[in-house]
Structure formats: structure tokens, C-alpha cells
Amino acid sequence: KWAALLPNSITLASVLSSCAQLGNLILGRSVHGLGIKLGLEESIMRNSLMDMYAKCSMIGDARYIFETILDKDMVAWNSIISGYTQNGCAYQALQLFHQMRSESYAPDSITLVSVLSACASLGALRVGLALHAYSTKGGLLTSNIFVGTALLNFYAKCGDAKSARMVFDGMEEKNTITWSAMIGGYGMQGDSSGSLALFSEMLKQNLEPNEVIFTTILSACSHAGMSGQGWGYFNSICQQYKFVPSVKHYACIVDLLARVGRLEEALEFIEKMPIQPDISVFGAFLHGCGLHSRFDLGEVVIKKLLQLDPDEACYFVLISNLYALDGRWNQVSQVRELMRKRKFSKYPGCSLVEMDIRNDISPVRMECFG
Length: 370
What we know:
mainly alpha; Serine Threonine Protein Phosphatase 5, Tetratricopeptide repeat
């Protein structure tokens, strides 16, 4: 009687899928233990376990499950490669992809999306260009919206807006994510006019923008000094499209006002925000204070920052930068000494780029690295 009520692999795989979506690692481990106890070792169970561990940020456990599979299929390869990509381990994802190819497995559309995302994170042009050729030969580029979107996003993040637009124009089908990727690609290149023009084209096709697109458009208006148009788009988020503006949208408006010197208005805007401002909001305001030498207003925000969270290292970096712009080096030294005493640290950024792959990458990139 009770044996008939015991779950099978399909049942546990469904539960694991729910655990993955919810990020519930504790319940996922319990289901894993139950599967072992019941002797359920089918591939559907192992693939679901890999997906669950990867989405719960336990990529090491996902890799362990993967290595125990003797008869690996494309579902297993795609699960582990996607898992590494989702967890920000792009280099390891590419290593697994090369291992997969060495074992004579042919990548499918799911593989291409994950690997192209990893290439975009690393700026890995050689692999990305090879995948472009492969997807074109296999007919996936124009027919598969996910592959096309991943490829144009790859080119955009590698600084090649021209190739990204070529992919975009060649796609038979486009969704909001595709439009968002291309509009964002122009934004990453600092091409505000390109972002705004494509956004207008999107609206003419009766497509509704998402929150990511609005962030890009508000940023484009800010960099182009189009404060009036930026305000109009911000108001349309609530009134026309019924979104609740995120802190990123508020940060864009603060940046828009601060860049054109409307700092008192920007400060009033911050004080009236219905949500808690974060580092992006304060950073945009202090940047404007530095641009327009309004260090008096910067001091007002500095006091608010220290009251808001005296233990946030990023705030101290903003304060130090503002003092440096004003030439107040004694205060800079004091802030940095305080950071050392509190054992705050900020890891320096770095960039990894491949060189001499193409000679028609963006002019800015060629100027920087030529």
C-alpha cells in the first residue's frame, strides 16, 4: 500500500525544478537524499540535481553530479555549461565547452546561448566568431530568436555595435529582449542617438518596452543632456506602462538632473523618493557635484550617507573621490585612514580583451588598444 505512494524519478525531478526556481537549497538537498535512499539514479534525476545546485549557487556540487554521469548526453552538458555561465564562471564554461567538442558532441541552440553569454562576459572574440559561423551554417542564427539575441548581445559587449546591428537586422523574429539587447548595445557604446532612434522604431511597431529598456533610454537621455525627454520617459513608466520605477530608474533621473547642473532639484528628488536610495543614486549626485564644483551640496549628501550606513565601504569611496575633486587632500587621507582602520577594502577593476582579431571593431576600442 505505502510502496505505491513512493515518488519516482519524474516526481522528484519536478520537485527539484521547483527548488531551483525558488533557490531552496535545503529542500533540494533533502530531495537529493531521498533520491539516493530510494535508489533513483536515472538521468532525469541527475540533470535536475545539476540544475538545482547550479541555480542555488552550489556549482561545485553540480560539477560533482556531472562527473558521476558515465553516459553524458547533451542535456547534461548543457546543464553544467549553463550552470557555470549563470554563476559568473565564464572561463570554466568555455573549458567545458571545449571538452564537450573534443568528445565529439555537437552544440545545439541551448549550448550556443550559454557559451555566447560566457564569451560576452570574457570578451572572447575568437570563440564567439566561430560560434557565429557555426550558427549561420546550421541555420540557427535567423530562425532561433534566443541564439540571435545571444549573438548580438555578444557583439555589443565586445564593442562591435555594427556587427550586433547586422545580426539584429537579419533576425526573422524579434521579441522585447532582442530589442532590449540592441538598444542596450548602443548604450554601452555611448551612442545615445542610436539607442533613442531604435527605441522610437520599437514603439512604432507597437511593442511594449520593459524595465531594462527604460533604464537604457533614461541613461541615454542623461548622457545626451535631454532632461525634458528623460522626464517624459520616466513619467510614462508609471502612467502609460504601469511599471513601478526601480532604484536604477531613479538613479538615471538623478544623473540626468545632476549632469545639467540642476543639483538642488536632484537633491529634492532624492529626498522625495518612495524607496531607499542606494549607492547608484548617491554616486550620480556626487558626480554632478564634482562636475559643477558644488561641493557644498556634496557635503550635505555625505552627512546623509554616514547616517544611512556608516559601515558601507562604497560610501567612503564616494566621499574620498569628492574630496579629491575639491583638492582637499587632507580629508582624502583621513577618509582612507578611517577605511584602513575599519578594514574596508575595494578590489581594483581590471579588463581582459583579445587583440588583433578584427580590424573593424569600434573606433573607441581601436583607439584605446591600438
